[in-house]
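User: I've been trying to design a sequence by hand for this structure and keep getting stuck. Would you show me what you'd pick, starting by listing the structure so we're on the same page?

Assistant: Good idea, let's start from the same input. This is the structure you sent:
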């Protein structure tokens, strides 16, 4: 109950607490944006004066217009866009004065004005880009902070639940060794399956919240595939799904066998979940340059393209409530990345999904 209350507090109170800070940061960014526009306008004016060889007398006439109007804009206008517009009008007026002094063609006036206005516009675009990047960094920091809180909560839950689960497993194993009626034996088996599922959830929470510890060994990838397929058949056979492994040439990899099997079992179980009775799930190995790809293909509906990136997010799941934690693919991708590989998902042209774990062979290309 305490954990649930703590979780709700994070999701409901944090936005209210960070809203004033966000508004303050936005105001500071707008002020900085306006400063940049003003400085850009005066710098642009100075550059134009040098390039066009405006005399000191003409430049003093420019400042006679620019300074008062810019100060009025500074104190009276809050938005950077309006300040730029006022500055542009000011430049237009001062160039009109220069035009009258020089008695040059009208084209000179337009070219000179155009340079200053374009410089101001480019400065504004740059400042807007800088503001967008600052907002993106702020959001990334906020999301990272929330993710750290979730990881701490997940680690606490996994630690507190693991010990009671161990006690339940010991008790169920003791009960299963004694002679019991068929109905009671079936009940014990159901309880044991539920506890095993709880252990998987605790393992996923622990893997998500703590750094992974890998024990690398040189093993044949085909042996790992067979081990994962044997475990996944416990779910595929009752569901009426055919699980086929296409054996290839032996390929030795330097990996953590337990973790790679964990990823393969997760991919196989996901494939079985989305495949209807009578369908099939296929596993094959593809040789790439310097890598080996273990592909798991199913006959399911696939994943909408707009959701392909979301499925790797922690706690995101399309399964029914209670059927998944939403951590399986997130943890699997993390395991693949810790092996200097990657996890790929792609919809197949003929329907279904292809999930692949790509691992380096360690061989030089």
């Amino acid at each position: 109950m305490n954990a649930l209350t703590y979780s709700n507090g994070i999701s409901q109170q944090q936005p209210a607490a960070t809203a004033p800070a966000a508004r303050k940061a936005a105001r500071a960014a707008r002020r900085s944006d306006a400063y940049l526009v003003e400085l850009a306008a005066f710098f642009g004016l100075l550059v134009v004066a040098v390039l066009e060889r405006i005399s000191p007398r003409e430049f003093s006439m420019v400042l006679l217009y620019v300074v008062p109007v810019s100060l009025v804009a500074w104190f009276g206008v809050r938005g950077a866009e309006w300040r730029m517009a006022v500055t542009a009008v000011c430049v237009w007026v001062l160039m009109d004065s220069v035009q009258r002094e020089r008695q040059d063609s009208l084209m000179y006036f337009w070219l000179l004005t155009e340079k200053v206005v374009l410089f101001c516009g480019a400065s504004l675009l740059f400042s807007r880009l800088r503001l967008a990047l600052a907002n993106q960094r702020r959001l990334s920091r906020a999301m990272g902070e929330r993710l750290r809180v979730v990881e701490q909560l997940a680690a606490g839950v996994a630690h507190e639940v693991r010990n009671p689960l161990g006690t339940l497993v010991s008790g169920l194993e003791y009960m299963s060794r004694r002679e019991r009626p068929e109905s009671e034996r079936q009940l014990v088996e159901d309880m044991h399956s539920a506890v095993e599922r709880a252990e998987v959830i605790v393992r996923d929470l622990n893997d998500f919240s703590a750094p992974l510890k890998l024990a690398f060994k040189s093993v044949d990838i085909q042996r790992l595939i067979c081990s994962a397929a044997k475990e996944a058949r416990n779910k595929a056979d009752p569901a009426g799904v055919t699980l086929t492994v296409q054996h290839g040439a032996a390929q030795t990899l330097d990996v953590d066998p337990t973790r790679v099997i964990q990823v393969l079992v997760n991919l196989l179980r996901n494939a079985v979940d989305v495949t209807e009775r009578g369908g099939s799930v296929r596993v094959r190995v593809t040789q790439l340059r310097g890598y080996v790809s273990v592909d798991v293909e199913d006959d399911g509906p696939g994943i909408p393209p707009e959701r392909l990136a979301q499925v790797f997010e922690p706690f995101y799941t399309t399964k029914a409530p209670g059927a998944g934690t939403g951590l399986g693919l997130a943890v699997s991708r993390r395991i693949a990345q810790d092996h200097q590989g990657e996890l790929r998902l792609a919809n197949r042209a003929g329907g279904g999904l292809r999930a692949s774990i790509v691992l380096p062979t360690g061989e030089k290309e």
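That's my pick for every position. To get oriented when you compare it with your attempt: Confidence is low (pLDDT under 50) at residues 1-18. The chain is about 65% helix and 10% strand.
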